[in-house]
Specification:
The protein has five helices and nine strands, in the order H-E-E-E-E-E-E-H-E-E-H-E-H-H. With 195 residues, it is α+β, with helices and mostly antiparallel strands. Helix 2 crosses helix 3. It has a three-stranded mixed sheet, sandwiched between helices.
């Protein structure tokens, strides 16, 4: 890649000499590159780095949690009182929606997720968010979106989302139309405006 289209500042920030800073974390072993995370997703607690994938793995071991449908992320304190540290949040989809209809069963599941992460990583979680199946944000190819989940959590919208299974066909058409409109604007207006 030579750079970002019509964005010289972002291009300068993206390169370290001839190398592209992708934001990926990885290591070399016997001539092979292994990608193991993203630098933007590392959660720092008391000066120690924690990787969201590790928390997600621990939470995914809990019976009642949908495997592969857990997102961990760092978040700022919604009250604004704690500005010197990142809060650790884990959001997961319950295996069975009926579990979330009972406050007792929901509380037990949340406690089990906290305990699994505490025992597996010696890390206390600030907030655990149980969700219905299909609520966590995903890309069009089905990959979980940590940054989007964090954004929804901080705006208070994560718990209010409808399951992807409940979204109406009309909502899907609206989203597709908005996407096409944005693409059309880019094509007509010629991309980013220069500063």
């Amino acid at each position: 890649m030579k750079g970002y289209w019509q964005d010289e500042e972002r291009t300068r920030e993206a390169f370290a000499g001839a190398y592209l800073r992708t934001g990926d974390l990885g290591f070399l072993d016997d001539g092979h590159v292994f990608i193991c995370g993203r630098s933007k997703e590392v959660i720092i607690v008391n000066g120690r780095n924690y990787y969201p994938q590790d928390m997600e793995w621990e939470a995914g071991k809990v019976a009642g949690v949908r495997k592969g449908n857990v997102i961990a992320f760092g978040s700022r304190d919604p009250s604004g009182q704690e500005v010197d540290r990142e809060r650790v949040v884990v959001a997961f989809e319950a295996q069975e929606p009926a579990v979330l209809e009972s406050a007792t069963r929901t509380s037990e599941l949340v406690s089990a997720v906290r305990k699994s992460i505490q025992e597996g990583m010696a890390l206390s979680i600030d907030d655990v968010v149980p969700l219905l199946p299909g609520v966590l944000p995903k890309t069009s190819s089905g990959k979980l979106q940590r940054a989007k989940a964090r954004e929804l959590y901080e705006s208070g919208e994560l718990g209010d989302r409808k399951s992807a299974r409940e979204v109406s066909r009309l909502d899907v058409v609206k989203e597709a139309a908005k996407s096409q409109l944005e693409y059309f604007k880019l094509a007509v207006l010629g991309g980013r405006k220069k500063k």
